[in-house]
Amino acid sequence: MKQMSSAQIRQMWLDFWKSKGHAVEPSANLVPVNDPTLLWINSGVATLKKYFDGSVIPENPRITNSQKSIRTNDIENVGKTARHHTLFEMLGNFSIGDYFRDEAIEWAFELLTSPEWFDFPKDKLYMTYYPADMDSYNRWIACGVDPSHLIPLEGNFWEIGAGPSGPDTEIFFDRGPEFDPENQGIHLLEEDLENDRYIEIWNIVLSQFNADPEVPRSEYKELPNKNIDTGAGLERFAAVIQGAKTNFETDLFMPIIREVEKLSGKTYDPDGDNMSFKVIADHIRALSFAIGDGALPGNEGRGYVLRRLLRRAVMHGRRLGVNETFLYKLVVTVGQIMESYYPEVLEKRDFIEKIVKREEETFARTIDAGSGHLDSLLADLKTAGKDTLEGKDIFKLYDTYGFPVELTEEMAEDQGFKIDHDGFKAAMKEQQDRARASVVKGGSMGMQNETLAGIVETSVFEYYNEVLDSTLSVIITDNERSEVVSEGQALLVFAKTPFYAEMGGQVADHGVIKNDKGDIVARVTDVQKAPNGQALHTVDVLASLAVGTNYTLEIDSKRRRSVEKNHTATHLLHAALHHVIGEHATQAGSLNDAEVLRFDFTHFEAVTADELRRIEEEVNQVIWQDLAVETVETDIDTAKTMGAMSLFGEKYGKNVRVVKIGDYSIELCGGTHLANTSEIGLFKIVKEEGIGSGTRRIFAVTGQQAFETYRSQEDALKEVAKAVKAPQLKDVPAKVIALTEHVRELQKEVAELKEKAAAAAAGDVFKDVQEANNLRYIASQVSVTDAGALRTFADNWKQKDYSDVLVLVAAIGDKVNVLVASKSKEAHAGNLVKVLAPIVAGRGGGKPDMAMAGGSDASKIQELLAAVAENL
């Protein structure tokens, strides 16, 4: 077996499959594009689903890749096990309706065992297979595998709901009896037991059925096109080839661990307690790649995953004695390890470090807040005479503040408290169950559509024609091909078309189809790409259409022009964002239709009003410069040398279109555009908002819509001017400021009057002092207009020694407001209000000295007041 670095393993994998006619697919962005079933790209096949379900036919049906992936279902296991990671690389080879079982197995065996390639010892390899899949068994035998190395397992069948499915055969490497302390041998594989001896390095999925949840597996129908989907973890390959005890002792992780040693002054012991080193090394890899791909820490979705990973790594740094910000210092090491295949980490190093460091600094403040929360919890326990911190509270500290259980336990035990470990585990399991239930593993695939996949007729899109004559090649109605259609809705393919099929954020063209007499025979309502790339026109049929007949295709030119204004403006907006807020603001989605443009981009905070103004001004300045919009067709390498920017998540073929707007913007884009920026006329941002952690969205309008937006704003301003009696529009701000100041003064006077009235009323309320359980208390219903007045009463009460406890109740509208204040350690305001509030159908809580509650049953106010004495 050859000794190889991880980079050499990856390259040998790709080179082998390239030698077998596979196209090398570059690793896709970790943030899925147009796939709501996935939080992250989590496998090599995740980005290829469009090929497997038949919605797109690839140029080459043989594909190989090394895909960076993230899985976060069981973050807690990272560092505990030898092979659990958040970020990993999945090596894969795929066949889309081309070769199948025989070649997949034969080539896998060749790659693993041939001296030209990995040169694994044949006697160290074991394979599992689905018991009913004797074809795979026989193919392994034909390759020379000993029958004793072939293990049938019922679990070797891959399916994720409706869609492609089939048996799979897994390949294991035997690391020897030193990793089998109980000497169980092959029994470990036969019983599918977790172990460190037999390491799964490769899974070959034989996708040959359309799974149908409504029928037994034995009745699944065969796919029209059978597929091969494989996955081999690079980290596991590296561990086996490099003879590492765990994946963490490979060259993918050890340079990071060595840096952590320097920062902490601690030494990594492969046989000792090294969990913190492993967690940090794993998590900084995931953070570096995810942030580099546009995901940012936040409070939900992907952002929450990143925030949790970072906080977990920081806390493990503290366990190693690293108390200052340090994670950001490891980004460069991650980039250096992966540079040969992922240069983008080092290219974006400054930005990634900035985000990680900022998040570390924020977490340092959060730790202080968490410590305060824990102190408060322990104080409440002490007051209540309890000695155990409940599991739900430990989990909140862990989940919200990032406190590991060990830290909570240490701080609690220092004050003499016990820890409810079972309750914490139960709360943790509930969260994990919810997380797993919300994940679609691998993402479901659609059923293959044989009719659409079977369209092979050529169809050419004519960029610069808005009206042309063309022959009707294909008619599809009710998912079947027809020669004639005379009514209803149909899908049509023409030999050539002026209609743009929806793609790259640009909506499809609308228009009409006319016969040779000039009569409209169909209205085009949508255009999408067929699996083989043809423009598939969705039409409402008005008169008979026949295959082989010539028709005139005419797009709605006015609508196209409006769309082009927005699309060209989107390119200008993208460039302006880079100039104003930074190069990290890359496109994360867009929509260009006739009415509005929508642009999504990565950014870690809201765009300020000043920044939006500068962006808007810059775009308009470019519009008014009359810059030519040029489109060049060239190969992808030439486009890159020109400096063309590729867009988020897009896949590009060998030949691409480059859209160049003067010297201001240059992007790869397949859409249609104006000839000159001046045709846009005017650009106006109408809204900026957050749509997810680390992703912002801008809505803008152009041309007539921009003018109408300004006009409506002017009309609104005129109404304000009229209301504030401003003689001219320019006088409105000063008038509004003066009125606002006057209102503020009036509000201050009202507040002072209310306070005086409350003080006067308080004099009467505070006279009625009662006593119970050696505590003086006042319990009274008061008449106030808002809950704030109750606090004013309490503030006045605190100034003098009226009583030990104050209970005030007020019916405000249809609600009942309750306030409890206490000056005595013998009476906890928060606990007392929790007892009293249910009487008026309410709930509440608070601190030992002040608490409030809300209820809805005003008829029980006197009953609540009477209950005060018995609960003191």
Automatic annotation (TrEMBL):
It comes from Streptococcus varani. Keywords: Aminoacyl-tRNA synthetase, ATP-binding, Coiled coil, Cytoplasm, Ligase, Metal-binding, Nucleotide-binding, Protein biosynthesis, RNA-binding, tRNA-binding, Zinc. Its EC number is 6.1.1.7. Its main location: cytoplasm. Zn(2+) binds at residues 567, 571, 669, 673. NCBIfam families: alaS. The gene is alaS. GO terms for biological process: alanyl-tRNA aminoacylation. Pfam families: DHHA1 (PF02272), tRNA-synt_2c (PF01411), tRNA_SAD (PF07973). Gene3D superfamilies: 2.40.30.130, 3.10.310.40, 3.30.54.20, 6.10.250.550, Bira Bifunctional Protein, Domain 2, Threonyl-trna Synthetase, Chain A, domain 2. Catalyzes the attachment of alanine to tRNA(Ala) in a two-step reaction: alanine is first activated by ATP to form Ala-AMP and then transferred to the acceptor end of tRNA(Ala). Also edits incorrectly charged Ser-tRNA(Ala) and Gly-tRNA(Ala) via its editing domain. Consists of three domains; the N-terminal catalytic domain, the editing domain and the C-terminal C-Ala domain. The editing domain removes incorrectly charged amino acids, while the C-Ala domain, along with tRNA(Ala), serves as a bridge to cooperatively bring together the editing and aminoacylation centers thus stimulating deacylation of misacylated tRNAs. One of its GO terms (molecular function) is zinc ion binding. This is Alanine--tRNA ligase.
